[in-house]
């Protein structure tokens, strides 16, 4: 027969074999942010899933982030449409969250850790949205995870981000139809369905 191969006669596979990249921080990256990323990356894939990211994000009252908010943010920063985010995408998302956190703290006038109807009105007005009190009450009630009575609701940080992103996305969709910028549009039933479905995907 043939002699058995000697031990060590084959070179070991290179690190990164099979498409897995060497798992280390990119040059010039923030070490603290890298440590946080690797702690959250529980399956050590080098990518964060929506579930992994949600488990790591909490509001000021220690409640977990709304999964829809997390999914929205991942979709915004997932440049390669993988459904996950790598470290560079995560670094962009982290800056986005920090910017929103500063914004939230600015409008949380009573430092309650929540945004009420009055504070939400002030925030949206600052962002350039001149909306009625009735609409703002509906918006806050929609995103109030604790289901307070109408007009007495408040929203946590994660839902504040989701509410503002929703208003912006719907406004952008509306403006595609509002060609003369008069605040009025005329659309048919299917156009309306398309507008809503695009916003929800």
Automatic annotation (TrEMBL):
GO molecular function list: calcium ion binding; calcium-dependent protein binding
UniProtKB keywords: Calcium, Cytoplasm, Metal-binding, Repeat
Location in or out of the cell: Cytoplasm
One cellular component (GO) term of this entry: cytoplasm
Residue stretches making up the EF-hand domain: 28-63, 65-90, 95-130
Keyword flag Transmembrane: no
Ranges where the record places region Disordered: 1-30
Primary localisation category: cytoplasm
Protein name in the entry: EF-hand domain-containing protein
Source organism per UniProt: Rhizopus stolonifer (Rhizopus nigricans)
């Amino acid at each position: 027969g043939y002699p058995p191969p000697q031990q060590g006669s084959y070179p070991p596979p290179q690190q990164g074999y099979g498409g897995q990249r060497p798992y280390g921080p990119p040059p010039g990256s923030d070490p603290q942010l890298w440590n946080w990323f690797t702690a959250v990356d529980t399956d050590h894939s080098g990518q964060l899933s929506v579930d992994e990211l949600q488990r790591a994000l909490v509001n000021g009252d220690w409640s977990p982030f709304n999964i829809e908010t997390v999914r929205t943010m991942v979709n915004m920063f997932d440049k390669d449409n993988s459904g996950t985010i790598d470290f560079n995408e995560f670094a962009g998302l982290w800056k986005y969250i920090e910017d929103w956190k500063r914004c939230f703290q600015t409008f949380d006038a009573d430092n309650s850790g929540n945004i009420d109807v009055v504070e939400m009105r002030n925030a949206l007005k600052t962002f350039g949205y001149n909306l009625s009190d009735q609409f703002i009450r509906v918006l806050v009630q929609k995103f109030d995870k604790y289901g307070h009575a109408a007009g007495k609701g408040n929203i946590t940080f994660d839902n504040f981000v989701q509410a503002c992103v929703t208003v912006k996305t719907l406004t952008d969709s509306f403006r595609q139809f509002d060609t003369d910028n008069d605040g009025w549009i005329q659309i048919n039933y299917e156009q309306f369905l398309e507008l809503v479905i695009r916003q929800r995907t």
